[in-house]
Amino acid sequence: MNEIFGNLRLELRRGVLTLAVLTQLRAEHYGYTLRKTLTELGLDIEENTLYPLLRRLESQGLLVSEWREEDKRNKRFYRLSPEGHAILEQLLAEWTGINASIERILHAQPEQTASSGRN
Amino acid sequence: MELLDRYLYAVRAYLPPAQQVDIIRELRENILSQVEDKEAELGRSLNQEEQEALIKPYGHPALLGLRYAPNRYLIGPLVFPAYWHTLKITLGIVAIVCILLPEIALLTGMRGAIANPVGSFFQIAALTFAWMTLTFAGLDYCVHKFGLLENWGKKWEPRSLPPIPKGVAAAPRSRRLAALISTVAVGAWWLLALKYPFLMMGPTWGMIRLSAVWEWFYIPFILLVLVSIAQRFAELAWPGKKAFALAMELIRAGGGAVIYFLLVRAGDLIEPVRTAAAPGADAFAGIYNTSFLIGMTIAGLVSLGEFARALWLGTRRSGGEEAVAQCHS
User: How far is it, in rounded angstroms, from Cα B115 to Cα B287?
Assistant: First the structure.
């Protein structure tokens, strides 16, 4: 049972994490500060998931990156590309729709759900 | 941070070659930022246990490195490099056997003796490709089905990371695994072919046979194969310990050069079986003797070159540390 929950949770989180990373990268971040900010906002993401994810999103053209010096050290900063902005808008619309549907399903009266099913 | 260098050096072996330096530089910067934050919070430098605790969540070097690999459908990123390397070596051997030997036959006047060598190559190559792909896909399935990688990663501790080797940097693990597999496969094939020569001669067996000279060399060849396997195994299992692998390389390459040059001087290695049913036996034996003469000379020269290279490596001390230094900003 725990294994089933673990797999379903993993599937659920996979898409949500991508959405959270893209949303957060409307402003520029490098890997470590991005992870720190997401954790502070309540979304814990492991380093070995986030850093490869950033590379993958960049290879898909959703992010752009550059090496730049900050605090006397070179860091790789990421931000959304124009294409990433467009995709993010669509994903957020999808997310809002799904979220609203789940809310409605959760709060629907049992009789209402049953009668809808019979129609 | 010596532990961080050891970790990044280990991760590097699993990364796509074109991105290794860039990814390691980025990982280094992210981890160092994390270290600085932690040190600022504690007001002192991190001790060994704290450094280990910081690196452990990144996971086993293989697990982290493979997450950067491109997705593939049939054979995943863990098994794919070993599959690709083994496939290239095997197809190279198939190409030499199917194309080079018949070409020599044509040059020496046996035109048409081996019909359509290119057609045979494509047939055998397609079969080799299919079997090898199925085998490695099965291996990949087992790795995922039984969670071998995850179970292996759970037990991992940063303190078990090997030191950065001095001397030449180790090849990626996938390449070392492929080298071991191909050494076992080629060695087994060669020893079997010396006992059952139809494996080497194919349909021409019956017209020709191996001369008695080979019996003298069978045990030296067994020793050579065992030394080669020991060398490849040592390279795979203990990449940091170069001395043993280097000693095996010296024995293998030196021994190989001696055997190959003795074979070149041993006279005819193939004898014709003169029967009424095989009128071209002498000509075939001639072709094979010429092929073996060329093959053994090349093998002897290659072994001699490898022996010289191993000697040179034994006296050189640099490499692993250079590879890590490249990734410093």
Answer: 15
